[in-house]
Amino acid sequence: MNKPHLLLARAVFPEIVDRLAQHFHVVSNQADEVWTQAQLIAKLQGQHAAFTTGGDRIDGDVLAASPDLRICANMAVGYNNFDLEAMTRAGVLGTNAPDVLTETTADFGFALLMATARRITESEHFLRAGQWTKWSYDLFAGADIHGSTLGILGMGRIGQGIARRGAHGFGMQVIYHNRSPLTPEIEADLKARYVSKQDLLAQADHLVLVLPYSPSVHHTIGAAELACMKPTATLVNIARGGIVDDAALAQALANRTIAAAGLDVFEGEPQLHPGLLRAANVVLTPHIASASLPTRLAMAHLAADNLIAYFSGKPLLTPLNPEVLSRDLTAPIRENSGHA
Ligand code: DGY
Asked: Which of 74, 189, 203, 214 sits a CA distance of 20 to 30 A from 137?
């Protein structure tokens, strides 16, 4: 088989580029330009494969304009940047990068919870600004984590990692809501109890959002849900922008409807709602929950493994629409020029 052509849509570890170059004619983007949809379409011309990240939208327009494309490997567990139905219709495979990031992301969720509840960044800004002149009994007094009630919305692998940390590390009571309850064995292991969404909102001292994004969960947390939470509660979002109505959250933080929020993801990121930037009672991080170096490297290798496996006729590791496989393995790769 001729070497297939691969587009790396964003900069990645140089060792990943080198590894992929052994198997593909690679067009890389090591300058890490953020392309418009039109630029992405132009770059995809003649490419058989794409290595994508969460910001690279593979939708019906991209697919219609990229007839040679066979597979897109996302270096992310989330894949809401893929229109998976359109990809399946077009016979284009999608893969994601689950599992390798679970523990790192759960670590970060917990770090964000702790930083938010214990007001760590807010107090550091105060100190750096030279405002610390004396000890006071209530200076940056926040909420306890140990022994409190941890609510988790979305109890997949990362949610379970957070539950484990809370129950076993901090003696928290864990309650959760999910599309379906976990098995009794897993619940017992995590010391977690399934509750309705309403009870989750009302009872959690700290509520962590870990559910995958789809249009059906858009603004799952809005003004009405925030109003159901305790005024002392902390909200943490490490899932996706759009799950929380950021304007409603900014208002709730300003009104003290809830005490504080820790946010790693935002609607319209990297742009942020100005009300969030103004609020002191929110910890803001730039979508880095999976960003330890070993984990990001493992995610990149998993995306590369999928691409290499596909063109070697081997089973994919983490396919999202494997039904496509039965259709397109028969079509030969057309050698093309100008992309080596
Ligand atoms: C993911 O893997 O979905 C993370 O959000 C990283 O982008």
From this structure: 203
